[in-house]
Design goal:
Number of strands of chain A: 4
Strand content of chain A: under 5%
Mean pLDDT of chain B: 65
Strand content of chain B: under 5%
Radius of gyration of chain B: 32 Å
Shape of chain A: globular
Structural class of chain B: mainly alpha
Number of strands of chain B: 0
Helix content of chain B: over 70%
Oligomer: heterodimer
Helix content of chain A: 55-70%
Strand order of the largest sheet of chain A: 1-4
Structural class of chain A: mainly alpha
Shape of chain B: rod-shaped
Number of domains of chain B: 2
Largest interface: A-B, 41 and 31 residues
Order of helices and strands of chain A: EEEEHHHHHHH
Largest sheet of chain A: 2 strands, antiparallel
Chain lengths: ~240, ~150
């Protein structure tokens, strides 16, 4: 009974349909498959949920409306007025990350958001988008974001670089937070799963821990999607309402 | 047997005297139902307290998870950037040193803002409304520096 403990094996990318354009590898991978499933599920939920727009909502309509209202409230309270234009973006982001995280918890599936390239791409879209919105709305005045108000000039020498740094670090914190949480959680699950497989009768203990961990991971999955979306809102607020 | 007599006697007055009647064990089924409803309502009334509390806790967990990584990433990314700049410009070790300290500053600023409710705003100013949550803290801090 040789069971290998390879808790990181679950994160390997596999080419399901090898595809090449020139020298570029555009194979359809398990990551791409899960992304497709996530998008299809979200679309199905929203389309089915809104098909019968009943006054007294059924189950699916309730779920859809809850998701909508949750994100709408988040945008309204965190991004300030005039941010409703960006609701579709935040909603898409939130639903995609939420479904990616939750789908990753299904046994034998793959966690898209445990790869930093994915989360970084999402964070980069947010970062670049927010910067463009800020520049379009405020033009050159946008640079005032980096100059704190009411600070003596001598301190500006120190404060402006810090502000600049904390602005450009945003995509990194945004992406690393999501990726690290997912990676750590799933590695932990796999480690305890491996214990359970290798200790025979005593498997009940690691298995019990895993049961608890799955609950924790569910919380983390939802919470990280929420944190990502709420930070997007806060960044948008910065760009929209300059001081 | 004992209860049945007052119930019959007080049948017409029960509406007027219902508070007093509820003290000594309500004989009227309607009054009893009313009392039970009141009790149930008061229990319900005390129940919504966990609601907002729960929401606050949720928000707290959100903030906690958010700032946990904030400081570390700021320092690491800034130091890495300094190291890359050093390699590129050949200014070892000054870029790394300066950017390390700037990173520490940026990390602290991020955590401070996340905690004091100025959220993650670059530019250390809460939105519009004077007297908003983060405003007093920010003013006091500025006065100290000036």
């Amino acid at each position: 009974m040789a069971i290998e403990l390879q808790p990181l094996e679950q994160f390997t990318i596999e080419r399901l349909v090898p595809l090449h354009i020139g020298r570029l590898d555009v194979s359809f991978t398990n990551s791409a498959l899960l992304m497709t499933i996530a998008v299809v599920l979200i679309t199905a939920l929203l389309v089915l949920g809104t098909r019968k727009a009943a006054l007294v909502p059924g189950r699916w309509q309730s779920v859809t409306e809850m998701a909508y209202e949750f994100v709408a409230n988040m945008v309204d309270t965190n991004a300030g007025h005039g941010a409703r234009d960006f609701f579709p973006f935040v909603f898409t982001l939130f639903m995609f990350i939420l479904f990616s995280n939750l789908l990753g918890l299904v046994p034998y599936s793959f966690t898209i958001t445990s790869h930093i390239i994915v989360t970084f791409a999402l964070a980069a879209v947010v970062f670049i988008g927010v910067t463009i919105v800020g520049i379009v709305r405020h033009g050159f005045h946008f640079l005032r974001l980096f100059v704190p108000e009411g600070v003596p000039v001598a301190l500006l020498v120190l404060l402006v670089p810090i502000e600049l740094l904390s602005y450009f670090i945003r995509p990194f914190t945004l992406s690393i937070r999501l990726f690290a949480n997912m990676l750590a959680g799933h590695t932990m699950l796999a480690i305890f799963g491996g214990f359970a497989a290798s200790v025979g009768l005593f498997a009940i203990f690691p298995l019990g821990i895993n049961v608890l961990l799955v609950g924790l991971e569910l919380l983390v999955a939802v919470l990280q999607a929420y944190v990502f979306a709420i930070l997007t809102c806060l960044y948008l607020r910065d760009a929209l309402h300059l001081h | 047997m004992v209860r049945a007599v007052p119930a019959a006697a007080a049948g017409t007055r029960s509406v007027l005297r219902s508070p007093k009647m509820s003290e000594g064990g309500p004989p009227d089924p309607l009054a009893r139902l009313g009392e039970r409803l009141d009790k149930a309502r008061s229990r319900r009334g005390s129940e919504p307290v966990p609601g907002p509390d729960n929401a606050a806790m949720q928000q707290g967990v959100g903030i906690g998870l958010r700032i946990g990584i904030e400081f570390v990433v700021a320092v690491v990314v800034a130091t890495g950037l300094g190291w890359v700049l050093d390699r590129w410009l050949g200014t070892r070790p000054w870029g790394t040193i300066v950017l390390f300290f700037l990173g520490v500053g940026a990390g602290m600023l991020s955590v401070y803002r996340a905690v004091t409710g100025i959220k993650m705003a670059v530019g250390s100013r809460p939105l519009g409304k004077p007297g908003a949550k983060g405003q007093p803290a920010k003013d006091a801090w500025d006065d100290d520096e000036a």
